[in-house]
Design goal:
- The strands form two sheets. This protein has a four-stranded mixed sheet with strand order 1-4-3-2, with helices on one face. Strands 5-8-7-6 form a four-stranded mixed sheet.
- It starts with 5 loop residues before the first helix and ends in a 6-residue tail after the last strand.
- By secondary structure, it is of the alpha/beta class.
- The chain contains six helices and eight strands; from the N terminus they run αααβαβββαβαβββ.
- The protein is globular, with a radius of gyration of 20 Å.
């Protein structure tokens, strides 16, 4: 049998997690997909991703005591971490009721790199009024922490607040480059929508959110932007109905 680099084993596990995102997969399931023993898979994962590397969304810890299970898509009553801060949300945009039919591929999570996950969690919940969707630490995968938040009333989309992994995932120089991009607001962007940009702006200013651009009329609506504690640049927009015509 031809030699398959360890990364290919992990990609097989990732493919399984993607294909079965709606199921709570365990470490044993991923190990079988990778063709490795449970212990070998855990070692390969830590070797490839380090203590804070990525994990396929939807991975659940095994049934061993003390390890919590995680899901990619939230259950009917979303899991709420004990760290959740309950805060009022922004002026919301009415969500449309769309028949999903047999659609198999959906956007589930977006990602932002963060310097400190606890700091990012506090800012997201206390200042932006978001909910905790998942806050799971998996000891068997190097104490990897899968932390996601999302707007109230939009349970099928979440933002992963991801710690920057060090070696072997990213070399030290790459970590510095990512941190430099974050400081410039160029490492990633989340576009938020509101039905009243000015009201949301005043609300967030009152919560000491650092705005870069105050609300301003644009051809597509009223737009503003702010930064999170890690320097990420987020936009807050009141989209005009005519912008979609």
């Amino acid at each position: 049998m031809a030699f398959v680099p360890p990364a290919r084993h992990l990609l097989r596990a990732n493919d399984l997690a993607d294909a079965r995102y709606f199921e709570p997969l365990g470490v044993d399931d991923l190990a079988r997909a990778a063709g490795l023993s449970r212990a070998h898979f855990s070692r390969e994962f830590r070797r490839a991703f380090g203590e804070s590397g990525g994990v396929p969304a939807g991975v659940a810890a095994g049934a061993r005591p003390g390890v919590r299970r995680a899901r990619l898509r939230p259950p009917a009553t979303p899991h709420v971490s004990r760290r959740q801060r309950s805060r009022p949300g922004l002026a919301s945009v009415a969500s449309s009721s769309v028949d999903q039919g047999d659609t198999m591929i959906r956007i589930a999570n977006a990602q932002l790199w963060v310097h400190d996950q606890d700091e990012a969690l506090a800012a997201s919940t206390e200042k932006l009024g978001m909910e905790v969707r998942s806050d799971v630490t998996i000891a068997e995968l190097g104490n990897f922490r899968w932390l996601t938040v999302g707007p109230a009333g939009q349970p099928d989309v979440a933002i992963a607040l991801m710690a920057i992994p060090g070696p072997p995932v990213f070399e030290a120089q790459t970590v510095k480059e990512v941190e430099s991009l974050m400081a410039k607001g160029a490492a990633g962007t989340i576009f938020l929508a509101t039905d009243d940009c000015q009201a949301s702006y005043e609300e967030l200013k009152g919560r000491r959110v650092e705005f870069v651009d105050a609300p301003e009329e644009r051809p597509y609506g009223i737009d503003s932007s702010f930064r999170d504690p890690s320097g990420n640049h987020l936009r807050l927009t009141q989209v005009l109905q005519t912008a979609s015509v």
